[in-house]
Amino acid sequence: MKIKISFILFIMYFLQYFFSIKLFFLENLQSIELYKRWSGFILLVLILSQWVLSVLRINNYFNPQRKKLFLNIHKWVGVIMPLFLFFHSTEIGYGVLMLLSFVFYINIVIAIINTEDNFIKYPKVFNVWLILHIFFSVALLSFSLIHVWLVFYYN
User: Fold this and answer.
1) 95-105: string of b/e by CB count within 10 Å (b at 16+)?
2) pTM of the complete model
3) d(C-alpha 140, C-alpha 102), whole Å
4) For residues 103 and 49, what is the distance between their CA atoms, to the nearest angstrom?
């Protein structure tokens, strides 16, 4: 279910971008500086929450059921993140923003590939998948912080 929703949101973002489907009320909102900052703040909080959930999941203080809950929340936050990116910006951008957008969506695609049945059968594939997911998550957080710094430095 989560994978289908995430895939649909992923496809919808690119369909609206490539076919120039515009929601004018959203375009108007995104032209307001205060809206951009708050929607960006919410998106950054979601990205940071993914890291917090991951750290909580590897903490030995929690029981397996609680860890499973953290994983489930992590996955659902990942599912809704493309929607929040869409509300923040319908454009992919240029330069650093384009790189940020690509890293964001590459990480979403990597997360969509997460089919636990295959990973149980092929644990080495899981290790490669996990390394890629963590690498792109670090890159996403890094580019997000660079984006925030550039926004506030030049505005």
Assistant:
1) eebebbbebbb
2) 0.87
3) 9
4) 18
